[in-house]
Amino acid sequence: MSLITLTDISVAFGAVTVMTGVDLRIEARDRLAIVGGNGAGKSSLLDVIAGVAAPAAGRVERERGLITGYLPQEAPEPVAPTVLAEAMASRADIAALREEMERLERRMAADHGDAGALERYGEAQHRYEGLGGFDLEARARAALGGLGLDEAAQARHPRELSGGQVRRLEMAKLLLQNADLMLIDEPTNHLDLAAIEWLEEFLGGVPAALVLVSHDRRFLDRVCSSVLELAHGIAEQYPGNYTQYARLRRERRARRTKEFAEQQAYIAHQEEFIRRYKAGQRAKQARGRQTLLDRLERVAPVLEEDRPHLRFAPAPASGGLLRASDLVAGRGGPLVFLERATLAPRDRVAIVGPNGCGKSNVADAITWVMGEQSAKSLRGDKMEDVISNGSDVRKASASAEVRLRFSGFLKTVSGPAFPSEPGLDTAAGEGRANGNGHGNGHGNGNGHHHHVVEGGHGHEPGAAVLGVDAIIQSAAREI
To answer: What's the whole-model pTM score?
Structure first.
């Protein structure tokens, strides 16, 4: 029997039906991706599969004794004072048995002759051991450690974690469920490159069936073996990973477009015959053709994809948007030091680095500086050394009331951030960093500046960056 069978499922938001007629079987060790545009109902269908929401119509059948682990897109509020305790609290069944055993222990301590309590205690202890209650803490520590949350992080309150670290905690909670079926909504959200690669490798080896909702095509290529597409209220399943799905989808759409055009031409020809001869000597033949048209199963037209239409109002030209030196960023204290930073019109900048190293702090500091200097920018004035020693940024950042404990020191060099991988084009640019870490980026003739800002400590190449002209790579260093 299949782990889960969906039959003629409909999903609705209030009076609006999002999808109808969904039929799906999930077998052991399946690797299924659910894809579709925003609002297509991907997360809602995942809720139905998980059993946290009921379908508007249809039937859901689950294998008896099926254990389902579900990682929703948004993390729930923490219920424990530490990361380790939060991970352990995810096993509510083990916690309930522990409470029952403690209650029976108090009862037996008060009445040594209570044979009924002793028998029930033995049964609870047997179930507790079978669920892995005695080694739950060891398994929780191992799962958290494998996801990059060390002992110091495990002792912190969950609210002190960064977005990526919270996602790792939620993933560890999922792994502790020993589930037969794992449902994961946007698994790569807030994860850095190293964590995504770890997750790809881990999911490739788990025995559980997987159902994933993600917009990360590279991740889906490496993890999934079939794709369920939701579009225009209809679900269609394709074999293979995302790349194979995209190819098959194009072929299927082209075939249906051709079939629709051919059928429309046939219908038009028959209707013209009926119109011409319905009242003449060939009226009987015309009526026969009308009967055939009435019984004809019509090919549905291929609906156009909804694509966003973006328009940007023209902005006044500016000689330079940002030029800063010795910029210090941090919330609640100095966290990241940037020796020199220049942001010019038409630059494309990506800020990358491991979780907790200060990427958002750099972005916040640059946003604040640009906000303070917006009047100058609009007039097109050149901004020479907006920040000389970072003191203004430190004062502005200290009001954010967010505590982080990592520091990254950045230096400027020129050239691609990472070696290229097959099929990906890295930002081009050549040059060497000089002795003080200040690089010499080069334009490419179209107004784009190619320069790279990388971590001054512990930079690890190994991933290609597509479509950027400048990279800020901040390396984590504890202070």
So the answer is: 0.65
